[in-house]
Amino acid sequence: MTGLTFRFDPVTLPPEAIALRAEVRAFIKEHEHLMGFTRSGFNRDFSRAMGKRGWIGMTWPKQYGGHERSSFERYVLIEEMLVAGAPLSAHYTGDRQSGPNILRFGTEQQKQHFLPKIAAGELTFCIGMSEPNSGSDLAGTRTRAVKVDGGYRINGSKLWTSNAHRSDFAILFCKMAQEGGAEPDRHAGATQFLLDLKSPGIDIRPVRNLLGEHHFNEIFLTDVFVPDWLLLGKEGNGWNQVTSELSFERSAPDRFLVFFQVLREMLRMAGPNPDRATAAALGRLVAQLATLRSMSLSIAGMLQDGLQPNNESAVVKDLGTRYEQDIPVVARQLFPTEPELEAADLYTSMIARATMNAPRLSIQGGTREILRGIIARGLGLR
Amino acid sequence: MPLRDETRMLLESMDRLFQDKCTKQLIDDAEKGTFPSDLWHAVTETGVPLAALPESAGGADAEWSDLYYVLRVTGRYAAPIPLAETMLAGWIAASSGLELTDAPMTAGPVRTGDKLTLERDGNGWRLTGQATRLPYACSAARIILITDGPDGEMAVALDSTEGAQTTEGRNMAGEPRDTLTFDHLRLAADAAAPVRGGTTRETLYRRGALARAAMMSGALERAMDLAVTYAQERQQFGRPISKFQAVQQNLAVLAGQTAAAVAAANFAIETLSRNDPAAEEFAVAIAKTRVGDAATLAAEIAHQVHGAIGFTQEYALQLATRRLWSWREEFGADSEWAARLGRMVCARGPENLWPALTAA
Fold first, then answer.
1. Which of A16, A233, A269, B223 has a CA 20 to 30 Å removed from the CA of A131?
2. Region class of A199: left (phi > 0), else alpha (psi between -120 and 50), else beta
3. ipTM, 2 decimals?
4. Is the pLDDT reported for residue A77 higher than 60?
5. The total number of structural domains that make up chain B
6. Nearest Cα to Cα of residue A299 among A19, A61, A74
7. Per-residue pLDDT tens for A162-206?
8. What's the pLDDT tens digit per position in B37-70?
């Protein structure tokens, strides 16, 4: 009948979500001085303040420090914070994926220990997946765990770990060391651990990005001991678990709001009465943004219904990053400038920031090519 | 918020109707000039064309949104009938108290540059001006035009193109787009009435644009369906071409654009029940812009995946892509609606962009 494989049903936000929006805007106004260009600011005090308001772990069970609110309310909170450029980094990963993964696969002890602290904004998590030799090909992970008395001994390294240098824990993806030769199943032995980054044997080194910023790190693990109780889920179930963690990461509403402030500045540059070509170029971007938001809201609806919208999330991330990368391209066509990071002029510095950040958008959290492969699989082609 | 059950059932039955009756032969014949009366009759029997009108006007007080979802189905099947036009004509005629019919109707003007003036002439009227590229004007039993009258906009109902200088035309999909020129055409008193119920020229243009967005989203679904199926069936180098990453990546892009087009059209269709012209204007501008953009990229990819066979008249793809190429220009091209949208957001100012996007 129809070729529409992916459903994006229209969604109306419930009244409690709309009421929450006003509250969040007021909170942001109070903390105006802490807002930045994007959400990448790291501020534990701000995260704790958000935790106190019940805005971390919003959808988690109350028995684990959550607030049992709807996916729609979470959606509204996140989108307001993203647009404002709130410093979310000290809790964002834990809220978005580490906590939900512990909720899904963790023991009662782990849930009781970690989730309330994440929800309070007191515990920072990072993502222990990528390595020098495995980015897109996560199954090529070389970090190895060996069972020892009372726990595991882990050796290897991770790369690109954002904020590892100021995080408390990582969810580490690795493999159980196998006896003998080649592994017939590349996913065999995959395992996740809750890794305390204060453990002996961990060496975290900065990797600066091309803007000179320190977000990325390389983590070297030399005979790191992880006690039994910090095994997440089951030995050998790591592939399912990491896939689940990735699907949490990808269904977040943050794939098209990174450069919102740039779009807003472009409107300011255009003035109230732009010529036709300028108006059309800006209108095209706004139409894409509004549509992406509508699709993303649909995904929130699917999450609320307990579904795992992996294909839909891949679609929104693919479309979203393409739209975002177009923003500095269109900006320089409409309002040429010589961009400079530390320029006093807001537009000039923003365009420098957007231009230099643009490449990472279609690489982080699943490259464009991988996402399109996921979509292709969703179409039945693979 | 999935579709209501009644909506789902309506769409399923319309889908079955078109699947059954809207054959390639019928579409080809229509393009050669044979109006598909049987198909029109079958559609009329469902009550859909006038369904959103009040019962007093022969309707069923149905939701306008349901009817626009049906337009997606007509787009999917490339149905060569003026369903959107009849819906819009019926809406104007019923609101103004003009006589309507469930025979094919059309409404205009469909282009912003057209000028249509109505002057008093004794106890009747005289119509002057031009209605360009009116869909199905020569097959229509009623032509409803919104004109500039002495005291404001007036809806005019004509029984045919008689009295007009008519130039037949076709869009790229072979659908009739006829231009009517009027030179002080005399009309009886009851052939015109003031517009009422929000059925202005501007609103007609907007709802026509939304109709095309809905229809295009259906044509996009069809193009994607064909491309995905073809890629899985066509074998080259010992395997289906769907096994090649280059083809998979292209189809993934096509799927994304199709999903976005459907979402954008839905977003605008859902504003119809809100009775908020400003919200509708904003949403339709988004939809027509986004769907037009999607149509351009999707038509390219669909043809590329099909190779030479997709470029033939015999194969069905061209029924979808010629419509995408045509409909994206009608009731305002995406560049026009993008400019409208851009002007709207710039006029409201940068600080109002986010509030406008998040208005409930």
1. A233
2. beta
3. 0.96
4. yes
5. 3
6. A74
7. 999 999 999 999 999 976 656 668 888 999 999 999 999 999 999
8. 999 999 999 999 999 999 999 999 999 999 999 9
Per CB-CB distance under 8 Å, the chain A contacts of B76 are 2
Q: What is the pLDDT of residue A318?
A: 96
Q: What CA–CA distance (Å, rounded) separates B80 from B171? A: 12
**CATH value at residue B33:** 1.10.540.10
Q: State the smallest CA–CA distance between residue A262 and chain B in angstroms.
A: 10
Mean pLDDT of A325-353: 97
Torsion sign across C-alpha atoms B233, B237, B239, B244 = negative
Banded model confidence at residue A3, pLDDT cuts 50, 70, 90:
very low
Please name which of B12, B106, B104 lies closest in space to residue B66, comparing C-alpha atoms.
B12
B177 three-state secondary structure = strand
Q: Are A257 and A85 in contact (CB under 8 A)?
A: no
pLDDT for A252 beyond 90: no
**Contact with chain A for residue B66, Cβ under 8 A:** no
Instruction: Please give the Cα distance from B91 to B57 (Å, whole number).
Output: 10
For chain B, give the number of residues. 360
Is residue B223 domain-resident? yes
In whole angstroms, how far apart are CA A131 and each of A40, A213, A217? 22, 20, 11
Give A-chain residues touching B349 at CB under 8 angstroms: 267, 272
Q: How many Å apart are CA A359 and CA A228, to the nearest integer?
A: 40
Q: What CATH number is associated with residue B346?
A: 1.20.140.10
pLDDT mean over B8-17 = 96
**Over pLDDT 70: what percentage of chain A?**
97
Peptide bond into B109 cis (omega under 30): yes
Structure confidence at residue A10 (pLDDT): 86
CB A349 within 8 A of CB A340: yes
β-strands B116-121, B124-135 pairing: antiparallel
Does B104 have pLDDT greater than 90?
yes
- B343 and B259 in a common domain: yes
pLDDT for the residue A212: 96
CA distance A41 to chain B (A): 21
Cβ–Cβ below 8 Å for B339 and A276: yes
Question: Which residue from B213, B225, B230 is spatially nearest to B323, judged by alpha carbons?
Answer: B213
Same domain, B207 and B323: yes
- CA dist list (Å): A32 to A26, A36, A372, B339, B349: 10, 9, 38, 33, 20
Tokens 């929800």 label which residue?
A119
Whole-number pLDDT of residue B134: 98
CA distance A373 to chain B (A): 7
Q: Look up residue B88 and give its two tokens.
A: 């819009």
Res A182: pLDDT = 61
Residues of B in contact with A8 (CB under 8 A): 259, 262-263, 266
Q: Are B302 and B223 in contact (CB under 8 A)?
A: yes
Q: For residues B185 and A284, give the distance between their C-alpha atoms in angstroms, rounded to a whole number.
A: 42
Residue B325 counted as domain residue? yes
How is residue A323 written in tokens? 């739209």
Domain assignment present for B211? yes
The answer to the question of residue B89 being in a domain is no
Extract the tokens encoding B139. Answer: 């097959």
